Amino acid sequence: MTTDRHGHHQDHQADACATEALGQRYWTVDEHLADVLAAVTPLPPIELQLLDAQGCRLAEDVPAGSDLPPFDNSSMDGYAVRTADTVNATERYPSVLAVVGEVAAGAGELPAVGPGQAVRIMTGAPVPPGAEAVVPVEWTDGGTGTGEAARAMAPARPGEEVRVRQEAREGAHIRRRGSDIAAGSTVLQAGTLLGPTQLGLLAAIGRASVTVRPRPRVVVLSTGSELVPPGEPVGPGQIWDSNSFTLTAAAQQAGAIAYRVGGVPDDAERLRAVLDDQLGRADLIVTSGGVSVGAYDVVKDVFEDYAGMDFRTLRMQPGKPQGFGRLGGPGGVPLLALPGNPVSAYISFELFVRPVIRTMLGAADVHRPRVRAVSTAALRSPAGRRQFLRGRYLADQGAVEPVGGASSHLVGALARADCLIVVPERTEAVAAGEVVDVVLLRD
Q1: I want to staple 299 with a disulfide (CB 3.0 to 4.6 A). Which of 2, 185, 228, 290 is the partner?
Q2: What's residue 307's pLDDT?
Q3: What is the pLDDT of residues 133-165, one digit of tens each?
Q4: Sign of CA dihedral 375, 380, 385, 389
Q5: Residues in the chain with pLDDT values less than 70
Q6: Would you say the pTM of this structure is higher than 0.85?
Q7: Backbone angles phi and psi of 126, in degrees to 5
């Protein structure tokens, strides 16, 4: 076996090749991911009411049917005036104007502003004809003649006057029609993720519903007779089910509507019954456990009854055993069967399930962001496998440090990690200070 200048072995696939010689194929991570993504497409568009569309992506461009704002309106409480009537106004020598009416938000009929006149106006109210600017109430005596600006919003009285103490420039404190959005312009593009601000914009231009790619409905279940729901006592040989919580939360974070079914014992009839019950509400099913070669792994036997399932051994660690297919054949519900070890299940989700959910959503980029960073420690990796180590990304240093060990049961270390350190198949050792690929576990 030869090595390169870093001491990395160049012939690292002896274990996989020996296995393949016996008739079992090892798939690469990239091959498996390509097959999985080739089998799924964005969900068909549907029209939803605005609040039901939160978290979905637009399936089409949205044009504005009218200007926003739809009319010139005041951005302040104050007085609508002609600019010529405020020229050279000061605190000592204010302009004295006759108050001829008031305009509140939602007003229909508007009093006109003539020479030497002013109209009391509220924030958001339409600017009356003849007015060229709005002077804030703080620039006036409040229209009482006593200097009590606090009474400025009282109804105008016959013969009332207002003293304006600053000169107003044309357009001051007026929000012009169409200054935010012009009629006919595209306000949101297809593929936009709809959150609170986007939904508010749609409402502001008068849209009550919108055409979107719906959020996929993902059913998550764990398999294993040893699993006990959290909060219940565990007996000998039993553990609390954590995978269904981890994977359900991960599916929600990816943008799906996720349903946690929980643990299903190693019983073929029970598993068939659960699957049959869930098929009607699922766009995607994700399972964990039962995909290895154990004598009690009934998952593969059950899935084979539905046809269209393929179980594979991948050149990766953790997460070597994987299953993928459609329950019921080519037109059935996609199913990804993940390993049962908690770290293996989560990393498999990030690599394979999350891209599927993002594809169904119609997202432009379905993968987690990747960066290059300097490893703060020496790393080891098995020959012929792509290793995914848990790490903490030190952005300010351009570095990454490993967290915990490589074992697939270390959930404590996984909870402290915010990235995955990738060691390629052809690398068995990485020296401290070398640059590695890093998958960030955040958007």
Answers
A1: 290
A2: 66
A3: 999 999 999 865 444 444 445 555 667 999 999
A4: negative
A5: 1-23, 143-158, 293-297, 307, 405-409, 443
A6: no
A7: -65, 140
Instruction: Tokens for 12, please give them.
Output: 């690292």
Q: Which amino acid is at 405?
A: G
